[in-house]
Amino acid sequence: MPGQLSVNERVLLHLSRFATDTPPKEYPPESTQVGIAEGVGISRTHVPRAMKTLIKDGLIEELRGRVANRDRRMSVYAVTPEGFRKAEETWENVRKSLLSVRKASGLVEMEGKAFEEMLGRKQAMSLVSRMKDGAIELLERRRAPVRDLLRAPEIGQFHGRERELSALDAFLGSDTAVVVVSGNRGYGTTTLVRKFVQDHEETDVLWIPVREQITPEEIESSIVDFGKRIRPTVADLDSALSIPDMIIVLDGYHTVNEEVVELFAALVDASTEAKLVITAREDTPAYNWFYQKTHVESGAVLETRVRGLDEVSAKELLGNADIEAEAFRRVYLMTRGQPLLLRMLRDNDAEGLKKNSVYTAEEVRYLLFLKDKTG
After folding, report:
1. Do residues 218 and 245 touch, judged by C-beta distance below 8 A?
2. Is there a domain that residue 69 lies in?
3. Averaged over 336-351, what is the pLDDT?
């Protein structure tokens, strides 16, 4: 019976709507893990489990490809020929069955074939894919995501970081609730996470800068108030953290008071449906770290360390495509691919280089000379 469609069958129906004979230049957002979760009406953490079984059965395949309205390659999923045949078989069974459809007037029974004729095949298949408790919500309207990025920095040009962004994408679909993105000052942890949430524009996001003097009460109040904007019944921190797939960014963890350390430790140990993304400085004092090695080993916390840009991305950021090979090699070795320093070099910001590095005045002049040298 259609009312008993499994999650896997619904995922297969969802993806079959975007099947093509040849690989597209750009895949639709609906073929990503986030798009599948939205299209089927399940938590993002449930998607990888369904994918694993469907891939094992040869019904879908995982690929890396460009996604519409995204400027980087992502993991996407497509039905195989066998998967498409299975989806067609499932849909034919739906067409022959009675469906429970929830309209404004109440719950009614409707033949699947009539439902398809009323809405068109793709729209009917989309609504069946999102069935809840065996019923189709005909008048369902998806709410717009709530995004509080007023305290988040703007980003301009973004270069590289495919590995780190892929790790964060995987985190969204995992059972892990906390990811710590760490790096030394100037290596772009904040920019990386800002790009990550920008790419996931359909997701609820709250951005909280972690100032040195911030209090636990400020953090809790921000999370609870944000939760109420999504779910008016939210009354406290626990109920706010129970909202599935919401992303809370706590940006700039470094030197904080003991009460804030304790709050972060409690967040790591909390039972939460929300996703916590914490950017932290690697030189954070040992007494301020809020999680242990055992948290990482058990999968409660995921760590992503940010290092220098790869050579291709560093050269792009430097802005001189014709730079002499040896000159670029020296620039890359001296800066270690650090985005902040490369950006200052590009902008001829000698004072910024002096203030944000250990370079001597002579070394700064040398770097500025090298970055303009062409081969």
Report:
1. no
2. yes
3. 92
How far is Cα 70 from Cα 281, in angstroms, rounded to an integer?
Answer: 28
Tell me, yes or no, whether 47 and 154 share the same domain.
Answer: no
Calpha distance 54→46 (Å, rounded): 13
State the chain's maximal CA–CA distance in angstroms: 81
Same domain for 244 and 129?
Answer: no
Q: Within this chain, do residues 187 and 91 fall inside the same structural domain, yes or no? A: no
pLDDT(1) > 50:
no
The DSSP call for residue 340 is H
Report the percent of the chain where pLDDT is more than 70. Answer: 97
pLDDT digits (tens, 9 = 90+) for 55-86: 999 999 999 888 877 777 888 999 999 999 99
Same domain? 161 vs 206: yes
Residues 91, 47 share a domain = yes
d(CA 125, CA 123): 5
| Phi, psi for 250 (deg, rounded to 5) | -110, 100
Q: How many CA atoms lie within 13 A of 278 on its CB side?
A: 27
Q: Are residues 289 and 157 in the same domain?
A: yes
pLDDT tens-digit profile of 98-150?
Answer: 888 887 777 888 888 988 888 888 888 888 888 877 788 876 566 778 899 99
Q: Let me know if residue 281 belongs to a domain.
A: yes
Residue 142 lies in a domain: no
212 and 273 both lie in a single domain: yes
What's the predicted TM-score (pTM) here? 0.72
- Which class for 90: exposed (0-12), middle (13-18), buried (19 or more C-beta within 10 A)? buried
Phi, psi (degrees; rounded to nearest 5) at 26: -130, 135
Amino acid, res. 201: E
Which of these, 286, 342, 284, 334, lies nearest to 309 by C-alpha position?
342
Q: What is the predicted pLDDT for the residue at 29?
A: 87
Residues with Cβ within 8 Å of 101's Cβ and at least 6 positions away in sequence, in order, are 107, 108, 109, 110, 115, 135, 136, 138
Strands 205-209 vs 247-253: parallel, antiparallel or unpaired: parallel
The tally of domains found in the chain comes to 3
Residue type, 123: Q
Which among 287, 305, 323 is the end of a domain? 305
The residue segments making up the domain with residue 329 are: 311-371
Calculate mean pLDDT across residues 276-287. 91
Q: Two tokens at 303?
A: 């760590």
Distance of alpha carbon 196 from alpha carbon 209, whole angstroms: 16
